[in-house]
Amino acid sequence: MKDEQIYDLAEFFKVFADSTRIKIIAALLEKELCVFELAKIVGTTQSAISHQLRILKQSHLVKFRRDKTTIYYSLDDEHIKDIFLKGREHIEEI
Amino acid sequence: MKDEQIYDLAEFFKVFADSTRIKIIAALLEKELCVFELAKIVGTTQSAISHQLRILKQSHLVKFRRDKTTIYYSLDDEHIKDIFLKGREHIEEI
DNA sequence: TTTATATATGAATACTTGTTCATATATAAA
DNA sequence: TTTATATATGAACAAGTATTCATATATAAA
User: Fold this and answer.
1) Burial class (CB in 10 A: 0-12, 13-18, 19+), A55
2) Tens digit of pLDDT for each residue in B24-44?
3) Cα separation, B7 vs A81, whole angstroms
4) Of A22, A60, B68, B79, which one's alpha carbon is 20 to 30 angstroms from that of B8?
5) What is the distance between the alpha carbons of residues A3 and A51, in angstroms, rounded to a whole number?
């Protein structure tokens, strides 16, 4: 495995390594949500959510669509769901 | 999803979120290895590897067996391999 | 018991990162 | 254009963490 791939992979998993982002991902498992709704569900500020969504976007964990002034976020692809669920299986078995 | 499960899941992914630990996991995909060999392969000190192995142990990502004074580490279960490989698939597709 | 080898650990430092606060940007309606 | 609403972003601070260095522990051989 190349060094660059090692670093990219660690960076990729860093995105899952925060409880706010885990809450966002968990919320998006069911349906797309806008920033305001996510802030409400996660229980933090719009700013904090927005910062975290930027990280999720940059790492291709979420995608988004605009409807007028509202931006709806959803999970990018099936890998994200797979990894999330595998992780959950693992911790449930301990 | 319960709050405790959220935090546990974030903690679990934190373990993958470091390039030294990713290198260790990548090395252990093929076969069990002792601390000294891991240090050589990863390219860091015995102490650094030992510190990281402790984290990997505590999170049940690796298991170990002792042979005289040497301790051989290996991946704990198939979830670890699955998550690692899914992550790698994801970054390869970007 | 003494010595050698393999591994583990505690403390300190440097670095990274999530949140907050204030503010900026973007779109739509009036 | 002005106003309102939704979202994004920059800077600063606090909290967490990986490595290094020194040292401790554990097992086996002499």
Assistant:
1) middle
2) 999 999 999 999 999 999 999
3) 17
4) A60
5) 28
Instruction: Give yes or no for residue B58 having a pLDDT over 80.
Output: yes
The rounded distance, in Å, linking the Cα atoms of B70 and A64 is 51
Q: Are B36 and B72 in contact (CB under 8 A)?
A: no
Which backbone phi and psi does B55 adopt, to 5 degrees?
-65, -45
d(CA A57, CA A64) in angstroms, rounded, equals 8
Q: Is B77 on the interface with A (CB under 8 A)?
A: yes
Say how far apart CA A45 and CA A18 lie, in whole Å.
Answer: 16
Q: Give A33-88 pLDDT, tens digit per residue.
A: 999 999 999 999 999 999 999 999 999 999 999 999 999 999 998 989 999 999 99
Reply yes or no on whether the pLDDT at B94 is more than 80.
no
User: Is A30 at the interface with chain B, CB within 8 A?
Assistant: no
Assessment of whether the complete model's pTM goes beyond 0.90: yes
Query: How far apart are the C-alpha atoms of B92 and B94, rounded to whole Å?
Result: 6
B65: Cβ under 7 Å from strand C? no
**Does strand C come within 7 Å of the CB of B13?**
no
The answer as to CATH 3.30.70.360 being correct for domain B3-93 is no
